[in-house]
């Protein structure tokens, strides 16, 4: 039986192979994996819209109920690389099915549970499963799509999470307010169980005769400087964008003078921009991955700076928030593809570490942005922090380009 490490064929020159890429459709399994990321993106953020209902039911403060979000983020940061290592010798399809099984069980526990401690434990367990699914799904997507379409495939898989922000989270919040906060968790448990069948049906078996990979050989990927540059870019790009996005509501209402009832529509605009950015960025990344990452980082910095300067005007701010979603997250599938490539014989660990990096960047960026909100900068503080953090993305992305030019492609993993 083969392991995951030997089934991925890393591209030797993404620029050349991207230009040779055909316009053939991606395999159906890519969209099945996107369904899984849609469910997981929904559960990660739907809690935010249901905190008052949850806190009242389990008799804790709203702030304490917010730990359900924090513990999920921690579970994602720790769980992705940890579960990638623990499931290394399992076939990819089995790992994905098991992850969805734990996902469904975790939501069932939340839907039935009355103890806040039990809810926290279930959320953490669900996050571990989510991290495992996401890491392995990225590797499967790159494998079945082929090296010439890997970024495009990752863009589609990641777009499931972006679509969750546009459809899943608002719909889940509305359903939770209408039927009770446990309703969305029941629905996610059922959908997770149904997705298990789709994964078992459409994800191909691992190739026979694949090279077995040990934990030691997986960890050898950590010696790759290119991998660490890619991970740094993952952390800074999401830290800048989502650190700002986490506190966008005060900026829209206090600075831009927008009515509170219109804020959700602006957030939908951000989500729609992010969805388009993931799909377009994935396509561009197969042709010019390095140019795409640098352009996205530079554009994001300019957009965030413009938000700082024009936040007193409603119309420009609304447009800029949508553009932030478009450019701010558009390079993510390219960064994942590069990390998987730079990890060489350890694609699963490379993919898992991008999940951790994205979540770590979001957690740290949001923490700093929160302090900035309480500072003299006020509502524009998070955007100021976001601008500085996003600008840092230019360092690792430029470093990757410069080192790539000095090093022949055949010398890379």
Helical segment count: 19
The largest sheet is: none
What kind of assembly state do the chains in view correspond to? single chain
Structural class: mainly alpha
The overall pLDDT average reads: 84
The residue ranges in which pLDDT falls below 50 over 5 or more consecutive positions are 1-22, 409-413
Elements, N to C (H/E): HHHHHHHHHHHHHHHHHHH
Would you mind describing this structure in some detail?
It is a single chain. The chain has 19 helices and no strands. It has 413 residues and is mainly alpha-helical. The longest helix has 30 residues, at 116-145.
Topology:
Layout: H1 14-19, H2 28-46, H3 51-58, H4 62-65, H5 67-86, H6 92-112, H7 116-145, H8 150-179, H9 182-202, H10 215-219, H11 225-245, H12 248-255, H13 263-287, H14 289-310, H15 314-328, H16 332-342, H17 347-373, H18 381-392, H19 394-406
Helix pairs in contact: 2-7, 2-8, 2-9, 5-7, 5-17, 6-7, 6-9, 7-8, 7-17, 8-13, 8-16, 11-15, 11-16, 11-17, 11-18, 11-19, 13-14, 13-15, 14-15, 14-16, 14-18, 14-19, 16-17, 17-18
